[in-house]
Design brief:
peroxisome, PEX11, 229 residues, 83% helix, 0% strand, mainly alpha, Peroxisomal membrane protein 11-4
Length: 229
């Protein structure tokens, strides 16, 4: 019972976050995309309802992200790194993310019919371009951080029991950070595939199964990263 209560408490905390709700609704969005693809020929009524669910979930996520570009702007303001190249990478990554979230507002309004729906493809292109641009640099930053962690993990020799304990704690922390970085890379690569499908549609990236699996990988990696410790 204790473990069950603990899980429920963590779920409540998770869903109290904007990112937590986003990952849950993103799961709905891409599960419904896969259901729509699977049911198209055999069960058209189910496919139609799944498509409506996918559309509603997609628009809901855009509403949840209102003002999110300000977070990107704040991150851009505070972009830092131990060296100028890392600072530059951070600036480029956060700039792309800010453009993505900013134009996502206009895309949402166009798809909802508030703005001219004919403008939606343009907003989608600019938003997806900013998104993919930012993700490339976020992936590079995470790979650099993972490499740095691996180097640190191999360093130092232990001389006393106390140093051994400190080193063990350090190894655990580095491993935990590496897992989080790998989850971030998985989410960013998956979202990059989705963005490429908007920028330059192609048979692989634009396929419903590719988009569905990519969306779920991104959602569940984000779920893992945002789940309370």
């Amino acid at each position: 019972m204790g473990r069950s209560h603990d899980t429920v408490d963590k779920l409540v905390v998770f869903l109290a976050k904007r990112d937590g709700i986003d990952k849950l609704v993103k799961t709905f969005q891409y599960v419904s995309k896969l259901v729509h693809h699977r049911a198209q020929s055999a069960r058209p009524d189910l496919a139609r309802r799944a498509k409506l669910w996918e559309t509603a979930a997609g628009l809901s996520r855009k509403a949840f992200r209102s003002g999110r570009f300000l977070t990107g702007f704040n991150a851009l303001r505070r972009s830092s790194g131990p060296t100028p190249p890392l600072r530059l990478l951070s600036v480029l990554a956060n700039s792309g993310e800010m453009v993505y979230f900013f134009f996502d507002h206009f895309l949402w309004l166009a798809r909802a019919g508030v703005l001219n729906p004919a403008l939606a493809p343009r907003f989608s292109f600019v938003s997806a371009f900013g998104e993919s641009f930012g993700y490339v640099f976020f992936i590079v930053l995470d790979l650099i951080a993972i490499r740095k962690g691996l180097i640190e993990q191999r360093k130092t020799t232990t001389e006393t029991e106390e140093e051994e304990k400190k080193k063990k704690k350090n190894r655990i922390a580095i491993r935990a950070e590496r897992i989080m970085r790998l989850m971030a890379i998985a989410a960013n690569v998956a979202d990059l595939i989705i963005a490429v499908a908007d920028i330059q549609p192609n048979a692989f990236c634009s396929h419903a199964v590719t988009l569905g699996i990519s969306g779920l990988v991104s959602a569940w990696a984000g779920w893992y990263r945002n789940w309370p410790a």
